[in-house]
Amino acid sequence: MAEVKHLEDPHKSENDRKMYKSLVLGNGLQVSIVSAPSVGIGFPNNSSCALMIDHGSFADPCNYQGLAHLLQHMVFMGSTPDSAENVFFAHVEKNGGECSSSIFSEDTLFSFTVPDEHLDSSLEYLMFSLKHPLMLQETMERARALVDSEFQQKVQKDVLRRNQLLASLATDGYPHGSFNWGNMKSLKDKVDDSALHRALHDAWRDNYAANRMYVCLQGIMPIDVLENMVVRHFSKLLRNDIKAPDLTKFDYRNAFRPAFHEQVFLVKAVEKWRKFELTWVLPNMRQYYHSNPDKLLSYLIEYKGNGSLYAYLERRHWAHYLHAGIDETGFNLHSMHSFFKVDIGLTDEGFQHIDQVLSATFAYLKVFSNCSSGSLRQLYEQQQKSKVAEFRLPDRIDKHDVDELVFKSKYYPPKDILTARELYFDTDEQHLSVLIST
């Protein structure tokens, strides 16, 4: 059997009947395994797998913006020994499963759900697609068309437009300032196809290696059966020991030009709503997962009881929702910085009183900045107890758990992949106070 190093098992609730294993294969690929023989997963007798590669759009060269997205599609456009395109996706869907792929700032994700009897063969197809992609130059045009089509579908989404606005304010030289989605303009106009084709192969060779991959496999089979399956398939992948770019060298305090901090931007929404958004740039908050000060601040801002900001705005018919916190995906949270947002959905009346909404919001935040250390500790302890109670609820499984767990397996120690960003291990009222004052 291939070399395997077992890591510390994740901490789980006493009511969680699932079994977990964390391990590293000899080629450096890190694996999380979940077995739930007594509860099933979403659909009866289905298994799920997520494979994440430590390579995302922030690594795109400036002359090929969208390269990581293009590579995501090219990898599955034919492989040896079967040169047909998209055979992995076709195999999964033909056998009653579903699959998806996504590109993020630092990562590329492939995941699928399939009936148990087809899990073994689906893993084989996935492994061959990743290990032996043809990536022929003649298929590049179709891959570019897919990238452009996805961009055209998303370009009218206000979230994407907002992200691109913020990207345009990035400090020169910071990777979040480029056009990471990609389209025909960035990948075809004034681009030499032969050079682009070479860049694709270089990106695959340097980044699609076992030591840059994370796998989470979840099924109803015994955990040893799942382990043998993942070891048998993924031990075949090669390593290269090339590391991902170090984004921590970019100081979050210098991530944006002064205009980001000094100007108000009015954007006409495509979708039919009005909202008011405040955005702060914070350090990468994953590093503070033991105390989660941003999570506690989110809870305080979103509180809807008497005396809250939301109660004040709703009573005046100025707002119909209020969200606060960090969206833990892609552009909003990565190794350089985090975006903490206060997002208020405005009514027509609220839009007419936007100055008062803004004043009320900052006045409410100032209340927390004046809280004593003892009061903040008490709030921490209340949330600690509440989150522990939630964590102890009877376990549930759905097919999307593998996506979340595979992300956590990269960014947190194995023992914490179930609890990180969920529980408050420590109270850190001083850090919370600093965060509020920011």
TrEMBL record:
GO terms of molecular function: metal ion binding; metallopeptidase activity
InterPro entries named among the record's database cross-references: Metalloenz_LuxS/M16 (IPR011249), Pept_M16_N (IPR011765), Peptidase_M16 (IPR050626), Peptidase_M16_C (IPR007863)
A Pfam family annotated for this UniProt entry: Peptidase_M16
Keyword Transferase: no
Every Peptidase M16 C-terminal domain range: 199-367
Protein keywords: Hydrolase, Metal-binding, Metalloprotease, Protease, Zinc
Residues covered by the Peptidase M16 N-terminal domain: 46-167
Gene Ontology biological process terms, A to Z: proteolysis
Gene3D superfamilies named in the record: Metalloenzyme, LuxS/M16 peptidase-like (3.30.830.10)
Entry keyword Cytoplasm: no
Membership in a protein family: Belongs to the peptidase M16 family.
Protein name: GL21053
